[in-house]
Amino acid sequence: MPRVSFFGIVREIVGEKETLISGGDTVGSLLEAISAKYGMRFNEKVMETPERKLDLILLLNGRHIEHIGGLSAPVKEEDHLAVFPLVGGG
Question: What residue ranges do the domains of the chain occupy?
Fold first, then answer.
C-alpha cells in the first residue's frame, strides 16, 4: 500500500502524521481515497472544487507531481506521497 505523510495544517486536519492507503493507482484516485478516509473536514479545507484550486503541494517519492504527470501520475504499492499545505507558516 502507498504510504502517505501529512504536514502542517493537513496533519492537524487528519489527526495523524502518516498512513497507509489503498484504492488509488494514480495520485488523483489516491487523493479520493484519502478524502473518503478523512471525510468532510479534509474535503472542505484542501480538496479542489470548481471555485477553488487544490490547496496542497504533493510530492510523490520526493518529486512534485506537476513534473511527473500531475493528478494522473501513476502510484505503485511502494510509493510515498507527501502532502503539504499550500501555505506554510514560520
Answer: 3-85
CATH superfamily name and code, 3-85: Beta-grasp domain (3.10.20.30)
* Residue 40 CB contacts under 8 Å (≥ 6 apart), including other chains: none
CB 2 within 8 A of CB 81: yes
Contact 27, 71 (CB under 8 A): yes
Cβ neighbours around 71 below 10 Å, total: 16
16 phi and psi angles, rounded to 5 deg: -155, 160
pLDDT at 32: 87
Residues 6 or more apart whose CB falls under 8 angstroms from that of 11 comprise 17
Give 18-21's long-range contacts (Cβ < 8 A, gap of 24+).
Answer: none
What value does the mean pLDDT take over residues 11-28?
A: 92
**Cell representation of residue 78:** 511502494
